[in-house]
Amino acid sequence: MLSLKNITKEYPTGDTKVQALRGISLDFRENEFVSILGPSGCGKTTLLNIIGGLDQYTSGDLIINGISTRRYTDADWDTYRNHSIGFVFQSYNLIPHQTVLANVELALTLSGVSKRERRRRAVDALKQVGLGAQIHKKPNQMSGGQMQRVAIARALVNDPDILLADEPTGALDTQTSIQIMDILRSISKKKLIIMVTHNPELARRYSSRIIKVLDGRVVGDSRPYRAGEDSAPAPVLGLFRRKKRSPLAIDPEEARRAQFGGLGGKKRSATGKKKRSMSFFTALSLSLNNLMTKKGRTFMTSFAGSIGIIGIALILSVSSGVNAYIESVQRDTLASYPIELHAESVDLTALVNTLMNSNGDDTHDHDRNKVYESIVLAQLMNALGSTGTESNDLTAFKKHLESSEEFAKYLSAIRYQYDFNWSILVREGNEIGSDAGKVVKSDVAAWLSGMSGSSGSSQSSYSSMMGSSMGGFDVWSEMLSPLDKNDTNLVSSLVREKYELIDEGGRWPEAANEVVLIVDEHNEISDLALFALGLRTEEEMNKVMLAAMKGEPVDLSDRKSWSYEEIKQMRFRLLLASECYEKNADGTYTDLSASDSGLETLYGDADRGFTLRVVGIVRPTDDATSAFMSGSIGYTSALADEAMARTQKLGMLDEQKNSPDIDIITGQPFKSDKVITEEQKRTAIHNYLASLSEAEAKQFLCRVLAPEPSEEQIAAKVAEINAYPDSALRQILSTALETLGQEGVTVDMVMENPQLKSMAIQAIALAMVQEELNQAAFGDKTVAEMEAMLSAAQVDTLYEEDEIPHDYSKSTYQKNLALLGDVNSDSPSAIYLYAATFEDKDEISALIDAYNGTVEESKKISYTDYVGLLMSSVTTIVNAISYVLIAFVAISLVVSSIMIGIITYISVLERTKEIGILRAIGASKKDVGRVFNAETLIVGFVAGVIGIVITLLLNQVVNVILFHFTGIAGLRAVLPVGAAIILVAISMFLTFIAGLIPSGFAAKKNPVEALRSE
Questions:
Q1: What is the average pLDDT score of the chain?
Q2: Per the confidence metrics, is the pTM higher than 0.85?
Q3: H helices of 347-454, where?
Q4: What value does the mean pLDDT take over residues 442-467?
Q5: Could you give the strand order of the β-sheet that contains 864-865, starting from the edge strand earlier in sequence?
Q6: Are 562 and 569 in contact (CB under 8 A)?
Q7: Mind spelling out the 3-state secondary structure of 81-97?
Q8: Structural domains of the chain, with CATH
Q9: Is the pLDDT of residue 509 over 90?
């Protein structure tokens, strides 16, 4: 029995509530024709929606066969509407882009009925209402009466127990209305029909029961159901009478048990019916039909979405072609690059392979029917974690290498590298041989680091960037030595073949203190190298850097040149680390190289170090494919041997070795494993603070206690400063520049350069906000109070500051040995093995692997294939550029995805009534969302396919352009099939993500409100 018990319905309107229904209580028979009469706004339609599960009551209870619906979930209501309720609306509410047959079939689709059975039942229902010959028409091709009959067929096709008709004849003429009412009356012989109408005559003529409603209350019932009027009244919904069990059928015993404590056993849905949902293919069909009604907009949307795909596909095509060409070059080009073995090494090959994702096909062993995650970061971390820093026993391998005749067959040269810590001093100035210039270290990286530390914020960041990029720049390069021990030359024949002497009377080095100047094919060396050689002063380089940082053009016309004879007059002073220290009276040492006066002393002391002189100028030969000497000054291994021998003779290294617990430079003990307590740290900090003024102490403590300015605070201060008149702003800038010691930067310069002005105002705002925050937080606090605020972590941080005096050395024993040049000729830090051909390189690699097979695990040698890595690096660079370009192009993908999301949202608005129809026939919220997700997937698929097709066409044009500019026939843009498939999948994925918000919005739409929309 369908019963309504004291049903009320309230709608909130602002601060008040409107009562649509006020305590409605009704019982309905299994099969009767009930008409609900009443004026507009009395609550008729609301009552119908509550009975149909489209709307929820505020209080009371809707009881179905003795079971309350208070605990019904959304899924239960969806099942109830789909299986047991049929709706007939005044405005028909047919989906316009679906055929009549598809409209009727839709409810069966949600019920999970097979395609064949679905079609049969839909055709039968349409024949029942006299439309058997109209099944393939669209709704807009039919009259109002025909569309209403389609709506009745749709309501009947799922064989519901209740048919709800809301003004079914309101939009029809009299003759058509009679036909519709005759159909409904015949249906009422087997089903319960509840009809809302304004027409009392129609109700009296066709209804078996008339219920009158006024102001949300039942004011009349012509034939109310009374308990016991039948000896054994069948439930209204026919749940027990019919052979086919209805979706709402619940066993009476189960109903009784549920009413008194639950069903027990497995949890069942409130309806007792397995829940059905719309299949993905049904959602695709609905969306595809909708998109086909708007072919132009669909194509333009897909084309806009394909632009990003086209860009990425073109980049991948060119990148793939270039990588293929690099592989061919690698096969055909002779190698003159080494295999590297380091005492401490990381398997760079494995790391590069991980970055390149060339880790075998096993990681891609899956079907291409989904978008899969590529675990890049985790693989990279695993590669780093698993390889770590490996130690190679180069001492044993060097001995094996020099005694093996097999290696000698394939090696063209060997170079040993040692971790020397020496300083090379030059006297700067353009006048070679003059004593007027300042003595400086030949160290570009140190100069850049010094500029970074002494300059302001903008210059510091610029210098830091330059320092990072030039950190590996080394003017001094060791030349290869002959492989044959009987060769009296200090330079390998490989070097002498690839480089030629260009100065008259020049020669290759014949002694340890002789070097050559290396120029490029144009007889040029860089200005940075000139600075390191003392031919450019620090002042000149600073001017260039300052001009660049100010955005001013740098004068490129001031290019210096020197004669070969002038170059060969150059002299350099090489000092070992131990020779740079002067012993003090207390036994500690002072680093003379740390000051200008000390450098002058070291440069002029003939008893320290070596004097190096240039004996030749060399240039790559015309047929040299690569200039493999990276520096501008080439020295021989004899200099390295002499430096090792001299280091061992100096007493400072032996003194440190004899005092393993004491740092002989500072005289302090090395830090022991003894834990320093927090109290001891606080005491050290307190003692240091006591030696400072109050302002200095507060400033020191603010390093860790100062509150962090927020972006909003800084932005507000920037806006405040920007509002200052120019005169006040100039005064602030002048004070700031003076405080920062910005030499060469004027207020006018800053005011005229928008970028410099913005950076300066940002820095000033930050300082002002920080000062205000500090003043607010600590202005009225004493140093002792601030000191008491320090946390344990902050104490640790302050304790490590350089100002805090410590009773131990901040260095270590091993660091001091390395600093003082503790090296041994039998224990190189790296070995470089050169081969003449790729085949020789492969043989050398095989010999190393064979050696590894003869030694224990801890002594195995890991190495880097420099040739393979070099070519891989080129590939990596190509890929890196590709990724950067892809990242830029991907922005268009994101933008197009957002656009597709907006268009999907518009589609949601356009299809609001369709959403209401779907919900009315039992579609769940997920089903509605699935419809719009399917639409975005279709658009994404079409966009991806369009993008790939256009790319394949454009690749032909790109290949013509590449050949025109490069003349390389083998350099062709080719889009891999896998990449094309992935790009289509990415397009679908992005559009799917973009459509999630509008599809979620669609799913959450109120079905009652959706049905009312136009």
A1: 78
A2: no
A3: 348-356, 376-387, 394-403, 405-410, 444-454
A4: 54
A5: 411-417, 830-835, 339-342, 864-865
A6: no
A7: HHHHEEEECCCCCCCCC
A8: 2-276 (3.40.50.300), 284-333+878-1012 (no CATH), 419-649 (no CATH), 678-807 (no CATH)
A9: yes
